[in-house]
Specification:
- This protein is an alpha/beta fold.
- Helix content is 43%, strand content 20%.
- Strands 3-2-1-4-5-7-6 form a seven-stranded mixed β-sheet, sandwiched between helices.
- Helix 3 packs antiparallel against helix 4 and helix 4 packs across helix 9.
- The protein is elongated.
- The chain starts with 5 loop residues before the first helix and ends with a strand.
- The structure holds S-adenosylmethionine.
- The site of S-adenosylmethionine has 17 residues, from helix 5 and helix 6.
Length: 273
């Protein structure tokens, strides 16, 4: 690896050679049911099938439990290998911040998943990981040691901590001067705000990003993989369709260059006019 940070090289080597165990160096703190929620159902369905076979249950009962087993096992595999909520995702938009040199702001950085995604994809960049680290953080990641410390541990595990500044702040009132950033990313965070908060955040993002800078907005999306694995549990983002988000970006002074989906995700790549 030619990256400047040796710790990260170790993490990458593990990712490359042991994909099943990849990401064990991170603790992003998402709740257990997002990673293994279907496992109890797999065990229950398998137990009932075994019991039914032994007690000679009706064919109909056996078919029902077989369907439950197939769905829950499939959803478990999709959750682990397609959604990979406790892993570091790839950048959804390849052309985001293509120059790769400069300063990036991550709005709602949480435990670092989106920050690490950008820092690994753009090894010449530095990043400010901004989060309120308040009740919303606790709701997502549960109580534990200081939120900032949890974020720092993951940044260290990825070998990128030297390139990151952690900032405790509200994304609706970003404490940086106009034009301070070459690019901004925000993943699964802006969609936690109400309509007014979203408009404020978009306006603040447009203020702190340089003209021509990229904004990668990543939101929870109700696409087929997520619906298969979680069904109605994925109620994030409310009823707002992608067109509503595009309109907010355009209104704030961005041009939407690309829009797409990834598992459980809808994303927008927008450029500051
Ligand atoms: C689901 S987490 C996403 C974390 C990370 N971006 C990721 O991809 O895993 C949402 C984060 O947004 C943060 N957040 C919510 N409202 C915020 C606000 N007004 N200002 C800053 N951060 C906020 C929460 O504290 C939480 O860490």
């Amino acid at each position: 690896m030619n990256g400047p940070f040796r710790q990260g090289s170790t993490a990458m080597a593990q990712d490359e050679w042991m994909p099943v165990f990849a990401n064990l160096q991170f603790n992003f703190g998402y709740p257990w049911w997002l990673s293994y929620g279907q496992l109890p159902l797999v065990l229950i369905a398998a137990a009932f099938l075994a019991l039914g076979y032994w007690r000679k249950w009706s064919k109909r009962a056996m078919v029902v439990w077989a369907i439950v087993l197939v769905w829950s096992a499939g959803a478990l595999l999709v959750t682990r290998f397609v959604l990979d909520i406790n892993g570091v995702p790839a950048l959804p938009a390849e052309s985001f911040f293509r120059s790769g040199t400069g300063r990036v702001l991550d709005l709602g950085a949480g435990t670092g998943r989106s920050s690490i995604m950008v820092l690994k994809a753009r090894p010449q960049s530095t990043l400010v990981a901004l989060d309120l680290f308040g009740s919303s953080f606790d709701e997502h990641f549960g109580p534990g040691e200081s939120p900032q410390e949890r974020l720092l541990q993951n940044l260290k595990a990825a070998g990128v901590a030297q390139r990151v500044t952690i900032q405790t702040a509200d994304m609706r009132k970003i404490p940086f001067d106009a034009g301070s950033f070459d690019a901004v990313v925000s993943a699964y965070a802006v969609d936690h705000l109400d309509g007014q908060g979203i408009r404020q955040t978009m306006a603040e993002t447009a203020r702190v990003i340089k003209p021509g800078g990229d904004f990668l907005l990543i939101l929870i999306g109700k696409e087929p993989w997520g619906i298969f694995a979680f069904g109605p549990l994925l109620m994030h983002g409310g009823p707002r369709p992608p067109a509503w988000w595009s309109a907010r970006l355009e209104e704030a002074g961005f041009q939407v260059l690309e829009q797409g989906t990834r598992p459980v995700t809808v994303y927008f790549l927008a450029r500051r006019r």
